[in-house]
Amino acid sequence: MDKDNSLLVEDRECGACTVCCVNLTIDDPALQKLPGVKCKNMIKAGGCKIYQDRPKTCRDWYCMWRYIPGLDESWRPDLKGIVIKRVFEDIPQGYENKIALDFEVIGPKKVIHDTDFINILAGYITQGFPCFLSYGQPRTAATMTFLNNLLLGPIESGNLELVKEKLSAAFKICVKEKKDKIIIKDGKIEIIPVKNK
Ligand code: SF4
Ligand code: SF4
């Protein structure tokens, strides 16, 4: 049975966005796909060759733009250059009761200084939602950097330049940190941890 999608924003559709068909790691009995690699079922002109029979993971997964009414059309991941994902692991102590959000940069880096991005992020951080910035490369696990501790002070003091500086530093960590490799072996997804992180 498919997941209950009643929490999705009404009348909001993916449209031309196909980000999750490239970005996601899919480990479904019917399909294994590495992150950052186009799914073999994608149609060049857009869409899915096996849409009616697509795997359960594809039926169930939506980015947070599909759930959060306050994010306008400009936040569609292919347009914004950021895909927001819900995070269930590595949530720091004290934040476990709030929904954790990962803002994964999938387009040009300049988006981290986008005023709209900073305003939305600042709103979540001041409300105590755990927020991460992340960046991945094909076939690797994205590196996530926890933002609340870094940004709460500068946000509360209204120091926009310092917020931008801290975001640049967080992004640098995401880009530079060595990433675990992800492979498909015998029809299963395996993570190969990087030594000397
Ligand atoms: S099977 Fe279809 S919906 Fe699923 S990732 Fe591939 S192209 Fe996208
Ligand atoms: S990333 Fe979000 S908007 Fe884009 S195709 Fe996937 S669910 Fe739809």
Give a short overview:
With 197 residues, this protein is of the alpha+beta class.
- Specify the overall morphology: globular
Largest sheet: 4 strands, mixed
Count of DSSP H/I helices = 6
**Element string (H = helix, E = strand):** HEEHHEEHEEHHEE
Q: Give me the Rg, rounded.
A: 17 Å
Mean pLDDT: 94
Beta-strand segment tally: 8
What's the end-to-end separation, in Å?
41 Å
- Contiguous uncertain segments of 5+ residues: none
* Bound ligands, named by name, code or SMILES: iron/sulfur cluster
Q: How much of the residues is beta strand, in percent?
A: 15-25%
Structural class: alpha+beta
Q: Name the helicity range.
A: 25-40%
The side-by-side strand order for the widest beta sheet comes to 3-4-5-6
General description of the model:
- With 197 residues, the chain is of the alpha+beta class.
- The chain has a domain of 130 residues.
- The chain is built from 6 helices and 8 strands; from the N terminus they run αββααββαββααββ.
- The strands form 3 sheets. The protein has a 4-stranded mixed beta sheet.
- A hairpin with a 2-residue loop joins strand 1 and strand 2.
- Helix 5 runs antiparallel to helix 6.
- The chain is globular, with a radius of gyration of 17 Å.
- The N and C termini lie far apart (41 Å).
- The model has no long low-confidence stretch (mean pLDDT 94).
- One iron/sulfur cluster (SF4) binds next to loops.
